Amino acid sequence: MSEMFLHKCPNCNATLEFNIETGMVVCGYCGSRFNVNDLLTEAGQTANNAADAANASAGSGAAAEDKIKEFDWGKYKERLTREELAGERSYLCQTCGAEVILGATVASAKCPYCDNNLILLDNVTASLRPNAIIPFKILPGQLSTSVKKFYQNRKLLPFHFFDENKMNAVRGLYVPFWLYNCHLNGGMTLKGSTARSYISGDYRITETTHYELDRDAQMSFERIPVDASLKMPDELMDSLEPFDYSDLTEFNSGYLTGFISERFDSDPDENLPRVTERVNNSLLEIMKGTCSQYSNVSVADNRMQMDDSSVKYVMLPIYLFDCTYAGKTYHYAANGQTGKVIGELPVSKGKKWLYFGIPFLILAAIAAFILYWLMG
Ligand SMILES: [Zn+2]
Ligand SMILES: [Zn+2]
């Protein structure tokens, strides 16, 4: 049996739930409200106790790990290779006593039997404690406005779509993300040209001069996001960006109460090529910007090298939901901080939205841990 934790109301002992509107955790039973940061000590202590207990019972020599208060990739690297992240884990619900079977990477959920908000300690504390979180800002009720925005200027919609479109099954999820900081050093050689044109006798002469443009550079990039869940299709997560990282706040498991969440299961080092690709695109724009007086600028030689990188582990909020129109279901996803919506369009045949099927894929892929939520 794995460790579970419930954020309980100190007044009446009912489980607490994060309230998006107030940004506080509230007790649905007696109405008390609490600041999320006030939950810190309790959760933190429990977390450390759990880690200690785990290490003691395993009799392992991993004494250093129980002192770790949050994720540190340098220290975690070794451990990931021997982690079993497929399959399921069994928990004992502290409220109703039922055995709850969850995917091995689930970090928070609702008990399918008593509907209480569960925090799965093993996946969210000590060295697995995220470095930061962006809490939900958009209320489920605001999503219909976002959907309307999404459909603005899409004239192929059926006439009665807005009157008859029904939104259902809104699910709030925290998705694990890597945020990379990196530093690049080196240079780039670009080619460009200038042209001038003049009349000489009976001829118009165009004189083109070609230049080789050398640039030395040092550049830092901050907070380049890559989703850290293998289950989440990268294209979908990319299209839900951008997130506003000024809202990043210290992680507390209280934020997860009432939402489904999963811990990371991808290796940050293996994502570095995606980071490099993103960085290179920005790099090219910046370099070309320094050659604005030339035409036809292209790169002849790229000597920029990443000489330093670090990664933070964060949780970001998204919604998944469905809309039904004329008896058919359409899947959507939304950024839980900005309200940006992506999804399918019920347009004329053969003009399905670019990301058709992707939200459906997610639903299928994470069905295992969505299912119990739906039952709750
Ligand atoms: Zn209460
Ligand atoms: Zn229960």
Structural class: alpha+beta
First-last Cα distance? 21 Å
Q: How would the global form be characterised?
A: elongated
Number of strands: 15
Named once each, the bound ligands are: zinc ion
What's the overall average pLDDT, rounded? 80
Strand content: 35-45%
Largest sheet, strands/sense/barrel: 10 strands, mixed
Any low-confidence stretches, pLDDT <50, length ≥5?
A: 45-65, 347-376
Fold and architecture overview:
With 376 residues, this protein is α+β, with helices and mostly antiparallel strands. The protein folds into 2 domains: 16-129, no CATH class; 140-183 and 215-367, no CATH class. Helices cover 22% and strands 35% of the residues. It has 8 helices and 15 strands. The chain has helices at 40-58, 73-80, 143-151, 161-164, 234-240, 272-289, 358-365, 367-375; strands spanning 16-19, 24-27, 33-34, 88-92, 99-103, 106-110, 117-119, 132-133, 166-200, 203-227, 260-262, 295-302, 305-325, 328-335, 341-343. The strands form 3 sheets. Strands 6, 7, 8, 9, 10, 11, 12, 13, 14 and 15 form a 10-stranded mixed beta sheet that branches. A hairpin with a 6-residue loop joins β4 (88-92) and β5. The longest helix has 19 residues, at 40-58. The radius of gyration is 25 Å and the shape is elongated. The model is unreliable at 45-65 and 347-376 (pLDDT under 50). The chain binds zinc ion (ZN) (2 copies).
